[in-house]
Specification:
Blueprint lengths: L1 E10 L2 E11 L4 E5 L6 H9 L6 E6 L2 E2 L5 H6 L2 E4 L11 H8 L8 H11 L1 H5 L10 H13 L5 E4 L8 H16 L3 E5 L3 H7 L2 E6 L2 E7 L13
Parallel strand pairs: 3-8, 3-9, 6-7, 7-8
Antiparallel strand pairs: 1-2, 1-4, 4-5, 9-10
Bound molecules: adenosine-5'-triphosphate.
Adenosine-5'-triphosphate (ATP) binds next to strand 2 and helix 1.
């Protein structure tokens, strides 16, 4: 479904990512792990279209999307839950959800909203509440819901558990399991690399922009008590 071919990204003179290369099928989960500044967000944002790689290309379902803008990638089903969520605090829950699916036809909007409310009943209960008044966990659910409004084929999630309580983190992973069961490809960044690696199928370990290791998540050297089978 998604082919990322040798992409390198720069911010001015700084090369933040060197030659990242992987493929991902529907229903597969890729964990991006590594310390701060390793290049994880850069890789996520290059797939979402907010950073254009210096070289290499990104192919979705056979179409080269490397140079198309973020909103066109969104309409092709690349959903993003960005680091820090980036909600509109002064809009209601429902309005935030609608912004997530704006690139799709309005005719399917109520059906897509209904789908999100089925997954997140708490968002339904708070549909008319301002996003800025929600708890951190509810805001993360809203960020998920907003991306799900796109009917994503690939879901990018940057820092899934940052600042959340353990019970909410468990809920977030349950949402990921739901996405996986719907054949959605997931790229996941989590400061808790053990949790991400235990859940994912594949992993890329980045260090100062270089791929230090990649392979099956359960074999990643960073995974404590690495499961070898
Ligand atoms: P973190 O967990 O801290 O978010 P990360 O692995 O996601 O780290 P990136 O945010 O991709 O890492 O950053 C990779 C490198 O690129 C770092 O050296 C960072 O300082 C640099 N960088 C990131 N964004 C910019 C920017 N907008 N301008 C210049 N340099 C940047």
């Amino acid at each position: 479904m998604l082919d990322v071919n040798n992409i390198t990204c720069r911010y001015g003179p700084v090369t933040a990512l060197h030659d990242a290369d992987f493929t991902l099928e529907g229903g597969e989960v890729l964990a991006l792990v590594g310390t701060n500044g390793a290049g994880k967000s850069t890789l996520v944002m290059s797939i979402a279209g907010h950073i254009i790689p210096e070289h290499g290309n990104i192919v979705l379902d056979g179409e080269d999307i490397t140079n198309i803008p973020p909103y066109q990638r969104a309409s092709r089903g690349i959903g993003l839950v960005p680091e820090g969520r980036r909600l509109f605090p002064d809009l209601t829950v429902k309005e935030n959800l609608i912004t997530g699916g704006y690139v799709l036809p309005r005719t399917s909007e109520s059906q897509r909203l209904e789908h999100v409310f089925e997954i997140f009943p708490r968002l339904y209960e708070r549909a008319n509440q301002l996003a800025g008044s929600l708890s951190g966990g509810e805001q993360q659910m809203l960020a998920f819901g907003r991306a799900i409004m796109l009917r994503p084929r690939v879901m990018l999630i940057d820092e899934i558990s940052l600042g959340l309580m353990p019970s909410v983190i468990i809920e977030c992973y349950a949402v990921l399991e739901n996405l996986r069961s719907q054949n959605i490809a997931v790229i996941l960044v989590d400061q808790n690399s053990d949790a991400a690696l235990a859940f994912a199928d594949k992993a890329i370990w980045l260090e100062t922009g270089y791929v230090k290791w990649q392979g099956k998540a359960k074999h990643c050297p960073l995974l404590k008590e690495s499961i070898v089978s």
